[in-house]
Amino acid sequence: MVGVGPRKPPSRKGSMADLPKDLLAEIKSLEEAFTIDTAKLKAITKHFVSELEKGLSVEGGSIPMNPTWVMDFPDGHETGTYLALDMGGTNLRVCEITLTNNKSEFDIVQSKYRMPEELKTGDSDELWEYIADCLQQFVETQQSEKPTQGKIPLGFTFSYPATQNYIDEGILQRWTKGFDIDGVEGQNVVPMLEAALQRRGVPIVVSALINDTTGTLIASAYTDPKMKIGCIFGTGCNAAYMENCGSIPKLAHMNLPADMPMAINCEWGAFDNEHKILPRTKYDIIIDKESPRPGQQAFEKCIAGLYLGEIFRLIMVDLHDNKDVHIFEGQDIKALRKPYTLDASFLSAIEDDPFENLQETSDLFKDKLHLSCTRPELELIRRAAELIGTRAARLSACGVAAICTKKNLQPCHVGADGSVFNKYPHFKARGAQALREILDWPAKSNSAAEDPIEVLAAEDGSGVGAALIAALTHKRFSKGNIAGILHPENFK
Ligand code: BGC
Predict the structure, then answer these.
(1) CB of 233 closer than 6 A to ligand 1?
(2) Active site annotation includes 174
(3) For position 173, what pLDDT does the model report?
(4) What mean pLDDT is predicted for residues 283-295?
(5) Is 161 in the pocket of ligand 1 (CB under 6 A)?
(6) 20 to 30 Å CA-CA from 438: which of 99, 242, 254, 491?
(7) pLDDT for residue 261 is more than 60
(8) Rounded to an integer, what distance in angstroms lies between the CA atom of residue 72 and that of residue 225?
(9) Which residue numbers delimit the Hexokinase N-terminal domain (predicted)?
(10) At what angle do helices 124-142 and 189-199 cross, to 10 degrees?
(11) 238 CB within 6 A, ligand 1
């Protein structure tokens, strides 16, 4: 048998040679549009460093660089039981986390709820009622045997850009990740959730509002003190790191000690909103234009899981409609025309196809899109997926390199979480390679050697991280060290 055995990803140079010329030309033009060479990676990183600075300045810039009032790393000796709510881009999760007496150990009980698609563009009341319902269900089943005195403290992981004047406040700057719910932007989301809970008589008080990246940073540092940055590469993408208050000019009016640590939620998805440096393809321009928030999250729209499948779909439609090659000729591409019909897992499956004849990719197109693909079309599909996935991983490395350069963090570990980081084939290796190019590291002497900066799988930031932050807040509060910590109404 020829051509049906398993094969090694990702290079398919050999299989490309036999393709028809017009198809090869299309592949070449996609390669030109999506490939980011070392010099460009370095230029993006340099600009990134200055944008991080700008975000911390009084004038501000595109990257919000939000102070979070998370002001300590855990020492591993935190204890207690906390409730955490994780409102991510795709799921809702409620957890009860017990930080045990054993250093850096914890127990977790959790329930996941699907975030109904219609809620993301629905009504604000419906959103909070749904979340309060989930919390109520969890509390009633988990806590029925535990008599509660007073209100249960909750760490609320709200993974959207939010201004925090206090740790238990979050004024939504803007929705991201395709959310578009009226009446929430510009508002503090904490009272909205608490009001819905109160209507149900659920005895919960939000003690800290947390970004998933800050949670990831803190949870990762709990088990590995070398962790200096928390990143999410999932439906959205972002990072948090620990800054010194003296390097945050926009907080100067608070007269905080210069060496006091402050976790910064960068919201780096907004990098290059002014389109100065990222090489944008015509597909990126369409994604932005058709999104609920055009002009926002320029960096995120090239990297995050929400958009990877959509970039791919736009390429396919373009190659069918507008190009000489006319892929899927004579077939009805109705299913492919539906925006956001393909998610990042579709691209993952293409890149993961182990067969020389791309059989799994062919089956995927049949099942999901009702399209039959010729062998040359399958080669083009595979290459397009590789290009999109590689660009995402290489761009993500620019953000990591920028924070490490700004803070002079080499050597360090970076904790990363999210579906793209955990599940997208070769994302980690491609990101690591880009870091080596950007920071001019010599080739590794052996595969077991560590790079000066290693991006590693993080601990559960939105659950354990949220609980730790609630514990750290409680510790600061009980020590009377309350600068910027809790909203004045909560000083009781
Ligand atoms: C949000 C961030 C979040 C990231 C990852 C972005 O869209 O703005 O707050 O950290 O997604 O979930």
Answers:
(1) no
(2) yes
(3) 98
(4) 97
(5) yes
(6) 242
(7) yes
(8) 12
(9) 27-222
(10) 60
(11) yes
Q: What is the pLDDT of residues 1-56, one digit of tens each?
A: 333 444 444 556 556 767 888 899 999 999 999 999 999 999 999 999 999 999 99
Q: Which residues contact 13 (CB under 8 A, 6 or more apart)?
A: none
Say if residue 359's pLDDT is above 50.
yes
Q: What is the CA radius of gyration of the chain?
A: 23
Asked if 336 and 369 count as a contact pair (C-beta separation under 8 A), the reply is: yes
Q: What are phi and psi of 362, to 5 degrees?
A: -60, -45
Ligand 1 centroid–CA 426 distance in Å is 22
Name the token pair of 187: 């508002």
**Residue 5, pLDDT score:** 42
Residue 76: predicted pLDDT = 83
Q: Is the CB of 236 under 6 A from ligand 1?
A: yes
- Token pair in block for residue 28: 């070449």
Closest protein CA for atom 8 of ligand 1: 160
Ligand 1 site, residue 177, Cβ cutoff 6 A: yes
- Cα distances from 483 to residues 70, 242, 251, 293, 489, in angstroms, run 11, 17, 12, 35, 14
60-78 pLDDT, tens digit each: 999 999 999 999 888 888 8
CB 485 near ligand 1, within 6 Å: no
Give, using CA atoms, the residue closest to atom 7 of ligand 1: 236
Q: What is the mean pLDDT of residues 282-299?
A: 97
Round to whole Å and give the CA distance between 399 and 388: 17
Does ligand 1 have an atom closer than 6 angstroms to the CB of 160?
yes
**Does the beta carbon of 48 sit less than 6 angstroms from any atom of ligand 1?**
no
Q: What's the gap in Å between 238 CA and the centre of ligand 1?
A: 5
- How far is the C-alpha of 167 from the C-alpha of 125, rounded, in Å? 23
Average pLDDT over residues 251-267: 96
Clarify whether 159 is annotated catalytic: yes
Q: Determine phi and psi for 237, rounding to 5 degrees.
A: -145, 145
Q: Taking the domains of the chain in order of start, what are their residue ranges?
A: 1-68+224-460, 72-210
Select from 56, 62, 92 the least CA-distant residue to 174. Answer: 62
How far apart CA 113 and CA 87 sit, in angstroms, is: 10
Tokens 């990257």 identify what position?
Answer: 63
**Residue 322: its pLDDT value, please?**
86
Mutate to test the pocket of ligand 1, among 171, 232, 293 (most ligand atoms within 8 A of CB): 232
Pocket residue to mutate for ligand 1, from 70, 158, 159, most atoms within 8 A of Cβ = 159
Res 234: pLDDT: 96
**1-68+224-460 has which fold?**
Hexokinase; domain 1 (3.40.367)
pLDDT attached to residue 380: 96
Mean pLDDT of 378-403: 98
Q: What's 72-210's CATH class?
A: alpha beta
Confidence of residue 86 (pLDDT cuts 50, 70, 90): very high
